[in-house]
Every structure is written in structure tokens, then in C-alpha cells.
Specification:
heterodimer, A: about 60 residues, alpha+beta, Alpha-Beta Plaits, two-stranded antiparallel ribbon, B: alpha+beta, four-stranded antiparallel sheet, two-stranded antiparallel sheet, 11 helices, about 15% helix, elongated
């Protein structure tokens, strides 16, 4: 089951304290930056949950 | 490096030495005032964010020294009146250690190449090559056409040719380098080289054992060593002895492990003890020091550290023992 992103908590990548840390951590390419915003490609998500654990905004979850 | 200093009846300080810290979180587990906070260990280990593993909250730290006494890596140093508490008789003492016995060491460098912390340096002095071979070699300079084939083929770079003018030329063999392999003799198109290998002519040639002796010294930097045990395991002559900080086991339930997709455990392990095998994490117990860094970063909680014993002695304070018991499953 792929992750969910709370776009309100996430905000723009330029404002992220981790400078888009989830994108850097995701080696599946399921999280990418498009037009300054985080975009999820659910088909590529491998459920490793590294993004959930490391998001400084706690914007990523499962449910 | 960050420092907390306070002066009262005595002057106390706590130094956090970031380059020794492995991000295991032992200090944050036992700090009684929650003054230590573990940062994003995996992103730091991967070099994605530039931060220290541990943050010391100066306002919360009471400079008790518990973290400094418990850190197996000496990444936290507590001083009372400028004396390191680990040198004070009233404070606990770690018994973990690593050493290489130079009387036994054959200076093969297996430990140096394997050490995950680059804590070992082997300096060695090799025997003179010329003393380990025997033979004769001579170049007939009248027959030599100075084609340079022997020079190009010589595996030990023993042949040198000088050309001052087109007719003023010279060729020489450095007998310190020549091993009498006879490649030059066989390759020479003019049969200008006479050479014989003593060992080939007389069978097994006896050399003076002293001439073959390899001398050296081993240098083990204890401040970099984490006592993982790689050197002890791979040393062919049992010259390396390691006492780990904890005794116990690491348990893995890899049902949920994402293997190659995640490999967080592998990236944070200070001991190179983790591999991904068949797309699952596999921790080699022999090299694990039970620091717990992997178990904290695993998003699936696949790893459990079970410490049975801590090789720390002289814990005089009951309250410290109680706090340290959090690290050891069945207490002291």
C-alpha cells in the first residue's frame, strides 16, 4: 500500500527543512519534484517507509 | 563538537565529539533528563543532511556524566575539574578493547584492508628481492641491437637502455631487481642474453631464513576502533584480540524487510556487519557490537537488539545501574 502525502503539511519543496529529503531517500523514484511540489507515483512505491520515518514535516503517512 | 560547561562546587563539562559518534542512540536512551536528542541518523549517514547525530540541549543537561560513561565510542566526554571521569576511580570503566600482538603478527595487512573504521595501519619492511633469488645474467653488448624488447618484457623492470647518440648506446641489467625468470633471454631476437636461474638448475634453492624475514609494526588507533571483531576473525595467525562492549544477540524478523529498496541498516552500521542477501537484511553476529543503530533506523522494526551483558565495571551508583539496565535485557 503506497504512502499518503498531506500536501498542507508538506508545502513547497523550497520551504522543506530537509530540502526534499524524502525525494533523496526514495530510491524507487516514487517521490519526485514537479514544479516545486512533491509528487507521488504510487505504482513505484515499494513500502519501505523511509520517507515516513524521515519527513521533517511529518507529512507522509499510511492510512 | 559541542560543549556544555557549568561551574559550581566543581567545574563540569560535557563534550560531544561528533566524528567518534556512530549514531547508535545509547546516550539518548539513558539520559535521565532527556537532554540528548538523536537526529535523522539515516540521512546523516547517507550524507544527505549535514548535521551531528546527537544534539545536546544545554538547558536540560545536568552534567551528570552518565552518557559519557556509557558511550562505548567515547563520543561524549565528561570532565570534572578538567579531569575526564573515565580516568577517575569512582566512575565506571569500559572493558572493551582491541589489540594486535606484534610478536605474532605477520604483517599481511588483512586487518588493515578489512577494518571498517580505518583504525589499523600496518607498516612493513619487505626483504631484499635479490636475496631471495640466485642466478647469473649477462648481455653480450656486441651482439645486442638495442631493440628494447627485453626491457619491455622484463616483469621486474631490471633492464635499462641509454641512448646518448644513435651509436653511443648502453644496456644494463640491475641485478638487485632481476629475478632470473629468463623471459629476456627467450625473447631476445639476437640471442644476445646469457642467463641462468640458480633455483631452476639446482632444484630448491636454500635461502637464509633471515633474508626472507618480513619486519614491521602494527598501529591500532583505539580512538577510531569500535571493537567490531573483523580483524580478530580474519587474522590468519590469531594476532588480533577483541573484547566487544556488549554481549548478546541481534534478532531479525525479516518478513517485512524491504531489502535493496531500503538498506537503512546497512548504511548506518559502523561495523560493516550488514549485508542484503536475497533482498533481505542479514546481520553477521560475529561483527555486530550490539550498538543498536540499525534497529533504530529500520522503518519496519525488523531488528531487535538483545544485550545480555555490558562489559562495563565499577558502576557504584544504584541509580546509574538502574538507568543502564535499560540497555541490558536481564539487568546487571
Amino acid at each position: 500500500m503506497p504512502v499518503n502525502i498531506d500536501m498542507e503539511k508538506c508545502g513547497k519543496i523550497k520551504d522543506c527543512p530537509g530540502e526534499g529529503l524524502c525525494i533523496k531517500l526514495c530510491e524507487q523514484g516514487a517521490l519526485v519534484e514537479e514544479n516545486g511540489e512533491l509528487v507521488l507515483y504510487p505504482g513505484k512505491c515499494d513500502d519501505c517507509d523511509l520517507c515516513i520515518q524521515n519527513c521533517p514535516n511529518q507529512a507522509i503517512s499510511k492510512e | 563538537m559541542s560543549t556544555v560547561v557549568r561551574e559550581g562546587n566543581d567545574k563540569r563539562s560535557l563534550d560531544y565529539i561528533s566524528n567518534k559518534c556512530v549514531g547508535c542512540g545509547i546516550c539518548t536512551d539513558i539520559c535521565p533528563t532527556e537532554a540528548l536528542k538523536l537526529g535523522p541518523v539515516l540521512p546523516i549517514a547517507r550524507g544527505l543532511v549535514d548535521m551531528d547525530y546527537v544534539k545536546v540541549n544545554k538547558n536540560k543537561c545536568v552534567l551528570c556524566g552518565l552518557c559519557a560513561s556509557t558511550c562505548p565510542f567515547e563520543a561524549l566526554v565528561c570532565k570534572i575539574d578538567d579531569k575526564n571521569i573515565k580516568d577517575l576511580s569512582t566512575y565506571p570503566e569500559w572493558k572493551h578493547n582491541a589489540e594486535i600482538d606484534d610478536d605474532v603478527c605477520i604483517y599481511c595487512k588483512v586487518c588493515e584492508t578489512t577494518c571498517p573504521r580505518d583504525a589499523i595501519t600496518i607498516k612493513r619492511e619487505l626483504p631484499d628481492r635479490s636475496k631471495l633469488v640466485t642466478g647469473e645474467i649477462e648481455i653480450n653488448k656486441d651482439a645486442c641491437i638495442y631493440c628494447g624488447i627485453c626491457k619491455e618484457m622484463c616483469p621486474s623492470q631490471a633492464v635499462s637502455i641509454t641512448r646518448k647518440t644513435p651509436i653511443n648506446r648502453d644496456i644494463n641489467v640491475d641485478e638487485e631487481k632481476c629475478v632470473y625468470c629468463l623471459v629476456c633471454k627467450r625473447a631476445c631476437p639476437e640471442d644476445a642474453i646469457k642467463a641462468v636461474c640458480g633455483a631452476c638448475s639446482y632444484g630448491e634453492y636454500e635461502i637464509n631464513p633471515e633474508d626472507a624475514e618480513i619486519k614491521g609494526i602494527s598501529i591500532l588507533k583505539n580512538d577510531l576502533c569500535v571493537n567490531c571483531g573483523w580483524c580478530q576473525e580474519l587474522c590468519p595467525v590469531d594476532a588480533a584480540k577483541v573484547i566487544k562492549p556488549f554481549e548478546g544477540e541481534v534478532l531479525q524478523d525479516t518478513a517485512e524487510c524491504k531489502g535493496e529498496s531500503c538498506h537503512a541498516c546497512m548504511d548506518v552500521c559502523p561495523c560493516n556487519a550488514v549485508n542484503i542477501v536475497d533482498n533481505k537484511s542479514a546481520i553477521e553476529q560475529k561483527f555486530c557490537i550490539l550498538c543498536g543503530a540499525c534497529s533504530k533506523v529500520c522503518p519496519q522494526n525488523c531488528i531487535t537488539i538483545k544485550r545480555h551483558k555490558m562489559n562495563l565495571i565499577n558502576i557504584r551508583s544504584k541509580s546509574w545501574q538502574k538507568q543502564m539496565n535499560k540497555l541490558v535485557s536481564n539487568g546487571f
